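Researcher: I'd like a structural prediction for the single chain below. Treat it as a standalone chain; there are no partners to consider.
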Amino acid sequence: MNLADLKRKVRKLKQVEKSIRANGNMRNDIPLVWEKFFDLRDIPNNNALYTLSKLASMNKDEYKSMVDDFFARVYYEAYIYKGINDANIYDPSLLAQLDLSPLADKVAVRKRFRALAKEYHPDAGGDHGKFIALMKIYRDLTNDGDD
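Model: Treating it as a single chain, here is the predicted structure.
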């Protein structure tokens, strides 16, 4: 795929996000996930996750994974914006910190938390700072930390 086609394809994701998040009536003061994800300029100058050169170097599976992650974050933001609070919707950025898929469920979160807690626990020779950070992430994901 040439760069012009790639840019067009990625820009369509922006329109889809606007449609999902606000039924096509997106307010200008609401930041888009797209803006955090992509920088399509020839010389990128922000902290976007994916630059044009990075996108161009992706294989099909990497691209699909990136799109899945993008839409997980878009839907998460849409749910939050619309006030939908569902116990099975997790912040994809927190899931990423646990090295989990944006589509991870409650069981996967709990399993990963327990494995990392064993690894990071100070009584087992782990890193105290990482353990505290892990506890905060888990508490934020579960809203109460006692799952």
